[in-house]
Design a protein that fits this description.
By secondary structure, the chain is of the alpha/beta class. It has helices spanning 15-21, 40-46, 51-62, 68-78, 113-117, 120-130, 146-155, 174-181, 197-209, 211-219, 232-251, 271-281, 298-305, 330-337, 342-355, 362-371, 379-393, 399-415, 433-441, 443-446, 451-462, 489-500; strands spanning 2-5, 13-14, 30-32, 92-94, 99-103, 136-142, 161-168, 188-194, 222-226, 261-266, 286-293, 307-309, 357-359, 372-376, 421-425, 482-485. The chain is globular. The structure holds pyridoxal-5'-phosphate (PLP).
Length: 501
């Protein structure tokens, strides 16, 4: 299978090349030239398979230039019980007859990013070998919290890779910072940037775009690459869990094979919900995709009106992983739904860059309207939902999942559609402990409590142990103390690579 750029100014390439490049040199994103179909008969065969086997089926459909053995190896190195604390990998939990929760946070960093970032390093190192590239791959990441840690865990000690994560010194939670600066592994570096997330992100983009620097690195046998969700290698592993969740319901007799269901996805960069869209186009029986946003509701407005307008105030919320105004992966959806028209796609993206908005055409909008529904929840609504879900089901959810369920309730009210629905639960409640404890037990309960006391309280509330990745963080050695100004990030990359030799 071949991949093409959404901007149409780059040649068609195989998946290994697309994963190695990350982003297309014409500024576009790589998409598959055709979307493979999974028939009902094949779904039936997959019903009795485990997560690993189902994931391998989906990956083999898209990554046809990898051998079956290579895919199987990548899958077993990633989705195993050393890395995930649930044998089901991505278990589905039933709340009532029509409402189910897909728990995507059983990986090492307690957020759904692990589902893709555990396997991406293996796909990437195999891609380098396949394309005859013998350089060491250097992954640069700018993170606002979750991606950095998940990428570090995925890439640590993976041969022929190095990973350097930049985070804003004041811009991540105490827990997130501790998770990163105690990171072990012989090929990892973590650097605090004096600035905000945008400064860190711009610094990384400048490094990627600096041709001279990249040529210099190449002479030293290094190649820069990205672990961001613009990389196709981040999206394709996510398609698998939508299939797996559906098949779990079939296997348990909760839905009959072929019966359509809805998915609700708490959304930021549009990566997770785009994977659900691919699953739908592949023939997975899905009726509606419900896009849930927080107060940064640019996608809600877009899905309702066809106008994408980022000219609005950026809001910091209790679901920080969804605090985003430019949803990069939307470009891929637009390309698929506008009839693969790269001219239109390029025009809209240019308009977003120049005038901070664009307006899609009638036909594209009609297609979006048929497949998607959207809504948003502010912080107090999200807190209320966390509390009521706990009271009703004795089940503790995190703030991002809270946004998802709140929007689902709005959907129910607006449409009366009682189709069985799965909510993608994107983080463990332990990761956002303060807000979650506050939602369930009230403001007084969190007064003067430190992060670790809050974890203990949550363990009691939820009846679950503190996840391995968050436990004892206060007792771990701090291994990373580098701090740079936003103008010195490139020099820092040089220093790090030099001292690595
Ligand atoms: C990254 C993230 C999201 C947003 O996912 P996108 O693929 O960017 O839409 C939602 N919730 C959590 C917990 C995340 O880490």
């Amino acid at each position: 299978m071949l991949y093409e750029s959404t901007r149409g100014q780059f040649k068609k390439i195989l998946s290994a090349e697309a994963i190695k490049l990350g982003i297309s040199p014409d500024g576009g994103l790589f998409v598959p030239c055709e979307i493979p179909m999974i028939s009902i008969n094949r779904l039936k065969e997959m019903t009795n398979q485990d997560y690993q086997a189902r994931a391998a089926v989906i990956l083999k459909e898209y990554l046809t230039d990898y051998s079956e053995e290579e895919i199987d190896e990548c899958v077993s190195l990633s989705y195993n019980q050393e890395k995930f604390d649930s044998p089901a990998i991505a278990p589905v939990r039933q709340l009532d007859d029509s409402l189910y929760i897909l728990e995507l946070w059983h990986g090492p960093t307690c957020a759904f990013k692990d589902m893709a970032l555990q396997i991406l390093p293996h796909l990437l190192t195999k891609a380098a070998v396949k394309t005859g590239d013998i350089s060491t791959i250097v992954i640069l990441v700018a993170t606002s919290g979750d991606t950095g840690k998940a990428a570090l865990e995925g890439f640590k000690d993976v041969p022929r890779t190095r990973i350097i994560v930049f985070y804003p010194e004041q811009g991540v939670s105490a827990m997130q910072q501790l998770q990163m600066i105690t990171q072990e592994g012989n090929n990892v570096d973590v650097v605090a940037v004096r600035g905000n997330f945008d400064d860190a992100q711009n610094g990384v983009k400048d490094i990627f775009g600096n041709t001279g620097f990249n040529q210099d690195l190449h002479r030293k046998n290094y190649r820069l690459s990205s672990a961001n969700s613009i990389n196709w290698g981040r999206l394709v592993p996510q398609v698998a869990y939508y299939f797996s969740a559906y098949l779990d319901l079939v296997a348990k007799g909760n839905v009959t094979l072929g019966e359509k269901i809805n998915f609700v996805v708490p959304t930021g960069n549009f990566g997770n919900i785009l994977s659900a869209y691919y699953a739908l186009e592949m023939g997975l029986p899905i009726s509606r995709l419900i896009c849930a946003s927080n107060a940064n509701n640019v996608l809600t407005d877009f899905i309702r009106t066809g106008v994408y307008n980022r000219k609005r105030q950026f809001r910091k919320t209790i679901s920080p992983s969804m605090d985003i105004l430019i949803s990069s992966n939307l470009e891929r959806l637009l390309y698929h739904l506008n009839g693969r028209d790269h001219t239109k796609t390029s025009e809209w993206m240019a308009s977003l860059k120049d005038s901070e908005k664009y307006h899609v055409d009638e036909l594209t909008f009609a297609r979006i309207d048929r497949l998607f529904w959207s809504g948003f929840a502010n912080d107090s609504e999200t807190m209320e939902t966390i509390r009521s879900i706990f009271q009703k089901y004795n089940y503790v959810i995190d703030t991002h999942t809270g946004v998802g369920i709140n929007v689902y309730n709005k959907y129910l009210k607006a449409t009366g559609d009682t189709t069985k629905t799965i909510i993608a639960s994107t983080a463990s409640p332990f990761k956002f402990n303060t807000s979650v404890v506050q939602a369930v037990l009230g403001d007084d309960a969190v007064q003067n409590k430190n992060e670790f006391e809050l974890l203990e309280m949550l363990a009691v509330l939820s009846g679950n142990g503190i996840p391995f990745g968050l436990k004892d963080l206060d007792k771990k050695t701090i291994l990373h103390r580098r701090t740079v100004s936003k103008n010195n990030m490139r020099d820092e990359v040089n220093n790090i690579l030099q001292s690595a030799n």
